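Reopening this ticket.

The earlier resolution said the output was attached, but the attachment link was broken on my side. Pasting everything inline this time so it's all in one place.
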Amino acid sequence: MDRITRSKLKTDRFAVEVEHSVEYVAEHKKQVVQYGVIGVVVALIIAGIWYYRDGQHTKRQEELAQWMESMQAPVGRGAAQGALF
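Inline output:
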């Protein structure tokens, strides 16, 4: 079994990984910004499509409700007064 030295015990693995990540981002800043912008654009496109489809759905539901009301309306002579034949 390997002996663990004090220097290994004192190193924080999480801190080391964060440091490596920060260094990587600093070295590849241009790529990180490009991918970030692409991600935001894709998210905005998806949100726009969702908003548009929701608006179209609401419009279709309102038109259907109007159509159903017109189909339920009485037809014929005296329909305006509610008279029955």
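Reporter confirms the inline version is readable. The mean pLDDT is 85. The helical segments are 6-10, 13-27, 29-72.
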